[in-house]
# Entry
Amino acid sequence: MEARRDWGYAGDYVEAMWRMLQQPAPDDYVIATGETHSVQELCEIAFARAGLDWQEHVIVDPKLVRPAEVDLLLGDANKAKRVLGWQPRGTFQQLIEMMVDADMGRYGLGP
# Structure
């Protein structure tokens, strides 16, 4: 639950790829938000959006915890921002809420 990741919206990442393809020469870019959020933060936001308390629904099974978990994954997209003029448009909270809304909408539970 404490592992931290740099989560981003696929639509933003596709836009970054399109911008890469518009460049006169190929190059390497890191596409990332530059922010990290824990798995617990993701659960808190997602369950709150559904009107639930995450602690009543999430169970951590120690047998399933990765023994060699990477605690922090964080990307530096400064080159993509500088060269491609790209940057992520939404926030982490907006991303998680959008995903929950889409899932709830599929089951007729959305707002």
